[in-house]
C-alpha cells in the first residue's frame, strides 16, 4: 500500500515544461514580429536624420496644423461619444422597449460600413450637390471640406466603441443596485452618479481609450470628407500620407511617431490607473 | 403603520402577475408572503416598495392613499434577494447611503451619520466591519448589512425578498432569530417573501399563502395548519 502516490506533484491544469515554453515563445515571437518591429521601424525612420531632422519636421506649419486638428477633433468627438455611448448602453441594458434589437444593430452599423463609404455618405448628404447641402451653402454654413464635416465623420466611425464596451457590463450587473439606491431615497441622477457610473467606470475608461485611439487615427472617412487641405483640414493621418507621397519620409515618419506616441500614452494612462487602483479593483470585483 | 391593499392587480403586457387581491396588514405585524415561484408574491412586495406600480387597485398606508407615491417617498426599507449591496463602497458607506441621499436640510451631520451607522452595525452584531467591502463578507454578514442599510433610512416598513434564500441551513436559523429580534425591537411592520413554508410558519405572525397571482388564505400559522382553506394550501403547507 505504501507505494501509492497520493498526490500528483503538479496541478492537473499545468502543461509540460516544453509545451509552456513553446507557447510563451510563440506569443512573444508573434508580438515582436507583428507589433513591436513595425513600431520600432517608425521611430527609427523618424530619427533617420537625427533629432534635428525630426524637430525640423515637427516645426513645419503643415505638421503643426495637422496635430492641432487631430487633437481638437478627439477633444470634441470622444466626450460626445462617451455621453452617447452611456445613454445608449443605459437604454439597452436597463429598459425594455420596442425596437431594441434595431437600436443595437444601428450602433454596430459603423463597424460594418467601410469608413470611406461613411465619408462619402456625408459628402453626398451635406455636399453642394444635395438640396440640403445647397441650403447650407446659401446660408454660408460649411460642413463638407471643413472642420464640422471631419468631426461628424469621426463621430460616425467611433460611435460603437463606448456603447459596445458598456452594454455587456451593464446587462450583467442588472438593475438591483440602482433599485436599492432608489428605495434608500436617492434621486435618479444621484443613483446614476453614485451607483451606476462607479460600477461601469473601468469599462467606460476602456471604451473611451479605444474611441480616442480611433478618433485620432481615423483615415478613410476623414480623407474623403476633409478634402485634405493642407494647414486647414488635414489631420495627422492624412498629413502623414501626403508627406509620404511627396517622399518627405522623415516628416511622414516623425508625424507617425507622434501619433503612435499619443496612442501609447493613452495605454500607459490606463495601466497607471489600473495599477494605482489595484486594491479597489480587487475588492470590488464580482465573485 | 398599517398597510391596506384594495383589489390590487398587475399585468405585464398580456400576462397577469396579480389578479385583484385585497389584504390588510396590521401595524407592527410580521407577515410572510408564502407561495411557489410565479405566485405573484415578489410582485406584491415590489408594489408595496414602489418599485412596480399596480395596473389597478389601491395601496393605503395608515388609511392614506399611497398608490402613486414614488419609491423615494415611500420610505420602505427593502432587502433584496441577493442583497444588492453597493460593491464599490465599504460597509460603512453602504449603510450611510440613505442618510447621505437626503435633502440638504434633512441630512444629518457627518458626526451624526457616523453615530447612526455605528449603532446599526452594533444592532446587527457586526460592529467591526465598517471598513470592509461587500465581497469580503460571508453571505450571512451581507444579509445583515443589507438589513442595516435598509434600517438606516428610518423606514416606515421593512420589506424583504427571500431574505434567507441564499444561505445555508445553520446560518438561516440564526438569521431568522435575528430578524425576529430586530422586528420586536423596532416594532416595524415587516413583510417578507418566502417559498419555504417552514420558515413562514416559524417566523411570521401572519401568513399569506399565494398561488398563481391569487391569495389563497390569510391566517396565523396555527390556523393555516389546522384549517387549510383550499386544496392548494393543504398540499403546499404539508410539503
UniProtKB/TrEMBL annotation, chain A:
The keyword Membrane applies. Residues 67-274 form the ABC transmembrane type-1 domain. CDD domains: TM_PBP2 (cd06261). The keyword Membrane applies. The chain crosses the membrane at residues 20-48, 69-93, 113-136, 143-163, 247-269. GO terms for molecular function: ABC-type sulfate transporter activity. Keywords: Membrane, Sulfate transport, Transmembrane, Transmembrane helix, Transport. GO terms for cellular component: plasma membrane. Pfam families: BPD_transp_1 (PF00528). It is found in: Cell membrane. It is a multi-pass membrane protein. Part of the ABC transporter complex CysAWTP (TC 3.A.1.6.1) involved in sulfate/thiosulfate import. Probably responsible for the translocation of the substrate across the membrane. The complex is composed of two ATP-binding proteins (CysA), two transmembrane proteins (CysT and CysW) and a solute-binding protein (CysP). This is Sulfate transport system permease protein. It comes from Rhodovulum visakhapatnamense.
Automatic annotation (TrEMBL), chain B:
The keyword Translocase applies. Signal peptide: none annotated. InterPro entries: AAA+_ATPase, ABC_SmlMolc_Importer, ABC_transporter-like_ATP-bd, ABC_transporter-like_CS, P-loop_NTPase, Sulph_transpt1. The keyword Nuclease does not apply. Keywords: ATP-binding, Nucleotide-binding, Sulfate transport, Translocase, Transport. GO terms for cellular component: ATP-binding cassette (ABC) transporter complex. Gene3D superfamilies: P-loop containing nucleotide triphosphate hydrolases. GO terms for biological process: quaternary ammonium group transport. PANTHER family: SPERMIDINE/PUTRESCINE IMPORT ATP-BINDING PROTEIN POTA (PTHR42781), SPERMIDINE_PUTRESCINE IMPORT ATP-BINDING PROTEIN POTA (PTHR42781:SF4). NCBIfam families: 3a0106s01. This is Sulfate ABC transporter ATP-binding protein. It comes from Rhodovulum visakhapatnamense. The gene is cysA.
